[in-house]
Amino acid sequence: MLQRRMLGGWPRRLAVAALAVSAGVGLATRTGAADKVVKIGITLPLTGADAEDATLIKYGALLAIEEANAKGGVAGYKIETVIYDSGTATAGQYDPAQAATNTKKLVSDPLVVANVGPQMSGEGKAMAPILSVADLATITPSSTNPDITNPAFAGQFKPKGRAIYFRTVTTDAFQGPNMANYMAAALKIKSVYVLDDSGAYGVGIADAYQRQAEKLGIKVLGRDQLNPKEADYTTILTKIKALKPDALYYGGVAQAGVKLAKQAHDVIPDMIKAGGDGVHGGSFLKGAGFPAVDGWYATTASPHLVEDPAVADWVKRFQTRFKALPDDYAITAYDGALVILDAIKRVAESGKEINRSNVRDAMQTTKLKTLQGEVSFDQNGDMLSKVVSVFQYRHDPKYPDDDIIHQQKYEGTAPEGS
After folding, report:
1. What predicted TM-score, i.e. pTM, was given to this entire model?
2. Is cis: bond before 118, omega within 30 of 0?
3. How far is residue 56's CA from residue 140's CA, in Å, rounded to a whole number?
């Protein structure tokens, strides 16, 4: 589809949109200079199966922006937020079509100079080409599919050529393989059955995990795909039980993952079960609950910080403001917003117009100290840090069952290596 009706190397419908947007970029700067206001978008699936985690991401970004405004704004500019929900009741989770619609709304507002989001890679694949043509940078605190920033797919996801999709997490090119490394080295598994939920993230991370598992000599006894809207996975689980793998690995998010956890607890209660960051956090924990989640391993594509004494003050500020416990992706969202704020500041101090192209350029050259350490990017927008953290759900009766910090025990950093 992207190869048809090309105009100057871009799809015609995106090129026309770009002409309209570029006509408004000067207006954005003039209006912003007069009113001393610029806008940052926040696009996340706040409806559906992953709303719990998406809300924490939203809070992380908002905290950074609110704190900046409380100090007088950025270089004299007040920062306003434009928040869009990319989840729909029809999808029951994130909806790529809605994410694309939201992105078109963002690029139609010339005051929007950058965006925080998306949460999910399926959203990101729908958003990226629209963002590219408009030269509107986004920074994702949790979207990990590597294709979106892979130069091999530049024609699909960044037709204008410049990086517009930045991350404050690493990608599944590391998250999937590093978890295979961990399961081989720490859990000593020799065989595994792999599942995915058919989404861009789920398929991608399961593929990456499976390739590394096979490279390590772990026998993959089978691979199946779960339909997130189906209610019953017991047929697949009964097949897995008969094959007797050492472990089950699931690539996917909460909509299918919650049902999988509950049913796997009944059918294969003693089997090692693991997944990526799609089964890490409140949406999975609260959706499936104990005892179903007990024993599951999960990863995040970031350092584990919420229990670090160095960020205790930040955690306290977050809890005071939002009456909720943060997770690590609330931190990567906060850091992502800091990257945008820093870029706006540097553009203003340089004397250039505060518009989306100049903010994008400044984001590309970021070297910023954040809660997770220095954030900087390669030429594709990927963060240079490649940390993957491993957790296991283990019930701790001293804390509420839905306590996202204390009901997941940090196991350490997953080992890298080929």
Report:
1. 0.90
2. yes
3. 13
Integer CA distances (angstroms), 4 to 1, 8, 17, 25, 100, in order: 6, 12, 16, 27, 19
Please name the amino acid found at residue 118: P
* Measured distance CA(363)–CA(366) in Å, rounded: 5
Residue 408: C-alpha distances to residues 69, 238, 262, 276, 404 (Å)? 34, 27, 17, 14, 7
Q: Alpha-carbon distance 274 to 296, whole Å?
A: 5
Residue at 182: amino acid letter: Y
CA 183 from chain centre, in angstroms, equals 23
Structure tokens at 293: 């989640």
Cα–Cα distances in angstroms (integers) from residue 237 to residues 8, 15, 191, 192, 264, in the given order: 51, 48, 16, 13, 7
N-terminal to C-terminal alpha carbon distance within the chain: 36
Beta bridge partners of 396: none
101-112 residues labelled b (16+ CB within 10 A) or e (exposed): ebbeebbeebbb
- Kindly give the confidence (pLDDT) of every residue in the chain, 418 residues in length, as a single tens digit, with 9 standing for 90 and above: 333 333 333 343 444 344 344 434 443 443 434 469 999 999 999 999 999 999 999 999 999 999 999 999 999 999 999 999 999 999 999 999 999 999 999 999 999 999 999 999 999 999 999 999 999 999 999 999 999 999 999 999 999 999 999 999 999 999 999 999 999 999 999 999 999 999 999 999 999 999 999 999 999 999 999 999 999 999 999 999 999 999 999 999 999 999 999 999 999 999 999 999 999 999 999 999 999 999 999 999 999 999 999 999 999 999 999 999 999 999 999 999 999 999 999 999 999 999 999 999 999 999 999 999 999 999 999 999 999 999 999 999 999 999 999 999 999 999 997 6
